[in-house]
Amino acid sequence: PSSLRETVVEVPNVSWDDIGGLEDVKKEMLEMVQFPVEYPEIYEKLGMNPSRGVLFYGPPGCGKTLMAKAVANQCQANFISVKGPELISMWLGESEGNVREIFDKARQASPCVLFFDELDSIAHQRGGGGGAGSEAMDRVMNQLLTELDGVEAKKNVFVIGATNRPDIIDPALMRPGRLDQLLYIPLPDREARSAVMKAKLRKANYSESLNLDKIAEVTHGFSGADLAEIVQRASKFAIREMVQIHMGEVRKVREHAAAALEDGVEFDEH
Ligand code: ATP
């Protein structure tokens, strides 16, 4: 479908510093994508193939997409993002064609990070039965495995899958050489919540008196997306206030000027 053809391909502008917390995951990802490039001889010596993909799992809104983008940015690689349901088509043969097409696109754009969001919607265990829709999913899944195993796919295309339900993902997808690393992206703890807000305010010139730790303390259970929303609302509030102050000042200047003119006061040259 046209939505797939219009997929944007570019190096994302998300840096590691835009991600709050998740230090372990950052470290793991760095090693995974950078070591093979920097130390190919070590891999060769050990007869190891570098990992070609990972599966991120965890609750929604905690940085899976953000992390995938930062990895691409770190490698100066292009980034293609597809949501699982976008691949499913009611037309026979079109669903697996979509998968092929997206991998072709990634290879053409290599080096490229290919991100499959909402993977559970297509990668559930095969052969589950349940009508035409599920057969299409089986075919998508088979095509996905074929592409992951293809020699060509390994050409500088790094695949990241994301799901909230790793328990229903077909284990075949996680065999060695496929998405063989499973990384948990958790809800932020107190320290990470503070870090997420700091990351969001990275470019803002905020007051020293703003106590992010205090906010982190009372936001237990908030996701990164929830915290981003708080910062967003606070920023809007601050903007509104600044605009009001500015308008107030403009008004005052106007009033002074009008009063001065009425009094017939000449503005002096100095
Ligand atoms: P979903 O499972 O819903 O796709 P996700 O885990 O992929 O969610 P993201 O899209 O990465 O979540 O995060 C959504 C938004 O929440 C981000 O654009 C960002 O503003 C904010 N956010 C989430 N986690 C973090 C984080 N660790 N650091 C900074 N911002 C974050």
TrEMBL record:
Highest taxon in the source lineage: Eukaryota
Annotated AAA+ ATPase domain residues: 50-189
Protein name per Swiss-Prot or TrEMBL: Cell division cycle protein 48 homolog
Organism: Aduncisulcus paluster
Full-protein residues shown: 445 to 714 of 803
